[in-house]
Each structure stands twice: as structure tokens, then as C-alpha cells.
Fold Probable inactive serine/threonine-protein kinase scy1 isoform X1.
Amino acid sequence: MFKFLKGVVGGSGTGLKDLPYNIGDPYPSAWGSWSHFRGTSKDDGSPVSIFSLSGSNPQDGHLAAGRNGVKRLRTVRHPNILSFLHSTEVEALDGSTTKFTIYIVTEPVMPLSEKIRELGLEGTQRDEYYAWGLHQIAKAVSFLNNDCKLVHGNVCLASVVVTQTLDWKLHAFDVLSEYDGGNESASGPMLQYEWLVGSQYKPMELAKSDWVAIRKSPPWAIDSWGLGCLIYEIFSGMKLGKTEELRNIASIPKSLLPDYQRLLSSMPSRRLNTSKLIENSEYFQNKLVDTIHFMEILSLKDSVEKDTFFRKLPNLAEQLPRQIVLKKLLPLLASSLEFGSAAAPALTALLKMGSWLSAEEFTLKVLPTIVKLFASNDRAIRVALLQHIDQYGESLSAQVVDEQVYPHVATGFADTSAFLRELTLKSMLVLASKLSQRTMSGSLLKYLSKLQVDEEPAIRTNTTILLGNIASYLNEGTRKRVLINAFTVRALRDTFAPARGAGVMALCATSSYYDITEIATRILPNVVVLTIDPDSDVRSKSFQAVDQFLQIVKQYNEKSNAGDAAGTTSVGISSMPGNASLLGWAMSSLTLKGKPSDQAPVAGANSVTPATTTTSTPSSGLIEIPSTAPVHRVSSSTDFADQPTPPSPTSTDGWGEIENGIHEEEDNEKDGWDDIEPLEEPKPSPALANIQAAQKRPVSQPVSQPKPQAAKSLRPKSTVKVAQDEDDDLWGSIAAAPPKTASKPLNVKTAGAADDDDPWAAIAAPPPTTKAKPLSAGRGRGAKPAAPKLGAQRINRTSSSGM
């Protein structure tokens, strides 16, 4: 037969010329005189099954029965009946004789006997799979007998095939005929092609061709007998040889034995209807059948039933036959998630089942569903995807992440739920390596810039940690613009102690990206301040960072002294190997509860501090911190008042600070760091230089001096103003007068003002160089009333008396 097929194949064995399918290798067995081949579609290469039947005479009985089978298979549709795709009849010359061949193309299947041998199931798993298969065939037979009033006539092992999803399907419809039991005038054979049925499969009345008795019997009588034959063959593991072998019940499960005996009753009228078999049999009540049945009618279940089922499914899947789970349950689960009938917990089960697949199968069967789920508006689905991203993130291609996944994930950065913002942030650790530089600079860094001033301290901390971990994926120009500003200007001055600690750790982890000038002028000055931080963990990390960066500076100095100037422009060394695992997340969850005292302040007169401070956990990089809001307390006097720090990161939207010589500027077209020029150090104004010089000299005794108006351009907005009498102001004598370009100095004298012999005049700031009319002349802009403070009121009174 196979040789004949090769003869009618056109060309080089690619298939019949008028058949849009390629014929492949044959299976070793098939029903009756049919041959069963593997095949593929010529259009898209999808797999199919091809059945062929040949004869030398077009009126041959086998061919006539084959044509009946084609007609029946084309018209009868049921989930448990083989799906018909195409058929054709070909006439071809085989030597001197003419051969007629019928071809049927169906969905890809293989003979049940071959699949059972391939699966090799044993014990309980074998019984559960057989129960599921018999349940499907019983439904198909019941559909034919009870709904269509048709008689299959030859239900047996050979007439059952198995799909790629391990479903059992009934075929071999050559003998199939209408049941005409209600026609009293009928006298001929009810089954026109009953001679094709093997004698071992025929019940007594059919073997005797007693058509009168057959017509008096119920429609299911013949096929119930055939179903009993099928049960015997699958459990005995051998093909039925003769009818007497059906009495051997040693291999039949005890729970199925009563139904088996009723199916094979010698009296046709007493044989069990297959519909009753499905409803009543104890044998079909098992975990596999119940699970698949629930999945198939999932859309009819309510949300509570779905949620309960999917939460149990991961553990249940481990107890079911692995091949059935992967080939049957997994596609059902993926389809239900994709079309919205499954709940969010189903994703956990999908990923667990997917973990049992090979990498190639996972990419083909699971990833397409996951990528589609990212477009879901269901927040529970989005949370589940982000929580499990480490299980599938590495399998996603860079193009899929950049074009299909990231645009949907990025919406979580601005979500109103802090928990979802944090999950979105953490997912970037997996996805960042697959993003293009355009996406990183044009989108991701903008979101991170906003998250570093998020209202949740936990998110601010983790944003700093993420920047440290993805620094290696940024190009050099972006690193120069972003890292130092993000870590020093914001992280090191955060009011949340773990955020400051994260900034120090991030600087250490990315030390190889900074040149010696940046280390000496921008990093070390900012880190040294934290060596006196109120939080012990921050202090410990700061000392380590100082040691590390000083070592880098020393190495540069040694190379310079040795005359080795090559490669000294970037001499940073990282104290930690690699970047991907440098920093662990600082938070385990935003939902953890904690005390506000867990947040320590930055040392400084203008810092926002909690009521109390606690000792943080050791600097392992992975600590649990609650996301409670900081307790604000204005400190009017601290030990570090002479080193005021800029305001909290939550007070600015840019990456720059006033101390760096950059004024805040809102620019939505930039990524948040573009307003910083990291390589240029602004020179202090002359007035500020005088203040710094004055602060370095000791003050032996307090001397009353008139208190000049504070210059807004020299101090952060949040600097604490102490309402105090000028005579008691110990710092008034060395304070610098702010230059007002359009005004004359105040020409007033106050009580206790110093005369020309003032001993502090030598270190006081020089008077403004601009010339303007005295205030007594009445036209200077300096005559603008000051804020209603104590000193200002005294000046106003004196000025009015002087005029």
C-alpha cells in the first residue's frame, strides 16, 4: 500500500498533485483496510492525519463503504468524534491496472494502541486516564445512539484515535447507518456493511443476522456491546481474538465491573445505555475527570468557584499524570486565561505547569499567552504577572519586551496603588537588560526620576537600588548625567535612613563608572557627611564607602607620582563583583507594618526627623522596612547646624539641587537628569566665600552686630529661621550681608550696633560694590518693608525716625 502511495505521489514524494497536503510516514496500524499516515499542510505546514483506502474496482464493496464513511464523517460533528478537514478520490495507474484511492484528511491523531504504549502509564494514573478516555468515547457513542439515532456498528480499540491533547476520538464510520427500529416494514439488513465487522466484535443477534431482533432492540444495543469490547481491550492490553475472551474479567477494575457486565448482557434490551454509564458509574468519579470537566465548562462557573479551583490547581496538578497535565490541562488553562474566563490565581498554575516544559516548549505554549495578558486591564492579573516575572522574564526576547511588554508594564509606574508601583519597579530588574537605549533614556529613566521622590519611602529606596543594579545597561553619557545626581543629590539626603543607606551602597556598587574628579569633588564630600548620621547602619556603610573611594584616590595618586598617567581618567574599582546582584531589595512588602521611628533623619539644621530613631538591621542589602510616612519635626538646634542639608527629595521633581549650582526647572521633555552638568563645579559667590572663611576662624566671645537680611539665594528654602533678639545672636557678627544690586546699604543705627573699631570687621563680608542712594534719600529699592520679624521691626522704626 505504501509503495502504491509513493507511485501516485507527484514529484519527489511531496504529496498528490491535487491534494493540498503532504503525505508522510505511516502508522503501523489502522482500522479495517484503511492506512493511516502522518501529514502536513502545504500552506502552513500544520500537522494533519491522512487516511487512505484503495481498490481496483470503483464498485468494490470496501470503496463503497469507504465513501459512506467519508460522507458520515463530514456530516457528523461532535467534540469526541474525529474532525474532518478534506477528502478526495484519486484514480491512478499501477502498472497495467488502474487503482482507485480515497483520501480523508483529519486533525492530527494517532491510533489509541500506539498512544497507550507511548505513554506507559501505570497504576492509579493509568486508571484515571483510561477513565477520562472511556468517558469521552461513551459521550460520542451516546450522541450517535440517543441524539442522532445512528448505529456505529464497530466500536473497538482500532476505531479510537488520540489527538495531540490526549483526547480520545471515535472514527471508522464505514459501517455507520441509521437506526430504523420504528419501521415495521423494513426487512433487509439495517447495517449495509456489517460484513466489515470482525466476528469477535459482533453481539449474538448481529452474528446471526437477526434483523428482527435488532430492530426490536434499543438503538444503543450494538454499540454498548462494542464499548464493552473496547473496555476489555484497553485493560487487557491485547486485541480481542474471540468473543469468549470477554468473560475474562481479571483485568477489569472492580468499580467498573458491574457496568462492564451490563454492557455485555446477552439480552439486547437489558444492555446499559451509554448515557447512563456516564451519569452513574463510580469509576468516572476521579480527580482527572473532575478537573478536566471543570475546565471545559469554566465559563459557567461563578467567581467563587473559579477562585477556589485555581488556588487548588497547582497542588492538584502534581498528582495527575504529567503528560496529560502538559498536553491537555495546560492548553485549556492558557486558553481560559487568554479569553478572560480564568481568574488571576490561574496564572500561578500556568507557570507551575510551564516549569515542567522544556525551554522551547515553554516559549511556544506559555509565553504567547503571558505576553497577551500584559494588555489586560484587570489589576489582579497585572499584579500576578509582576509577582512571577522572575519565572518567565528571562525567556522573553528583547524585541517582545521592548515593543509589547514594557509599554503595558510602564503604566504601573504611575498607578495609584503603591503596591503595584513597587512591583512594577522591581520587575525592571528583570526587564531592563532587554530594553533598548531609546526606551531606557526616553521612558524608563523618566519614571525612575519620579519614583525617587515618591511619597512611599520604600519605593524611593528601591528606586535607588534599581538604579545601582541597572547602571551597567546605561550608556556612558547617561551614566555620567544620572548616577551621581540620583545617588548624592537625592538618595544621600533622603529623610528615610534605609534610602540613605541604599544611596551609599549604590555609589560603592557603581564606583567603576566615576572618574577621579567626580570622586574627589562630588562623591566623597557627600558621603563623609553621613559618617555622623543618626542611623548606625548608614554610618557603617558610609565609613566603608569612604574607605573604598579614598583607596581609589590613593591609587590615582600613586600612579600620578609614578608618572603613569595612562588610564587615570577613570580609575574606579568596584568592591563588589558584578552588577546584577549587587544590591538586594530593601523592602519585602509595602504592606508590612512598622513604627515611624524606623526612619532616621539626615544630620542638619533643616532636616526633617522622626520623633525617635532606632538601630537598623545589618547592612546585608536585604532588609525589611515598613513604608510608613516619616514623622516631621523641625529641629531648631542640632550638633551639625553649621552644615545644613538641602530639603527632602520629595520637595523637588528634578534630579538637581541648589547646592550644585542648578536651579530647579520643570522639563517634561527630559528624563529628569538633563539639568545637571556633573563635570563642572560652580564657584561660590564672593559673599559665600567670605562666610566660609569666617566660619573657619574661632569666635572667642559673642559680640552684638546688626543682623542683616538673609539671602534667599544662598540658603535652602527649608532652612530654619530662629526668632531671636539680635543682641543674643552669637552668629550675627560673622554673617554675610546679602548683596542687593539695586539698593544702598541701610543707613540706620540700631541699639548695640558696632562702631568703626569693631574687632570683627576684619572677617565680615565686604560691603556691596554697587552705588545707590542712601535710604534716607527715599528712593532706593532697599526701602521695601521686610518680613514682620523682631529685627526688621526695629529697623523700620529707626528708619522712620531717621527720616
Summary: The mean pLDDT is 76. The domain at 13-108 is CATH 3.30.200.20 (Phosphorylase Kinase; domain 1). Residues 536-561 form the longest helix (26 residues).
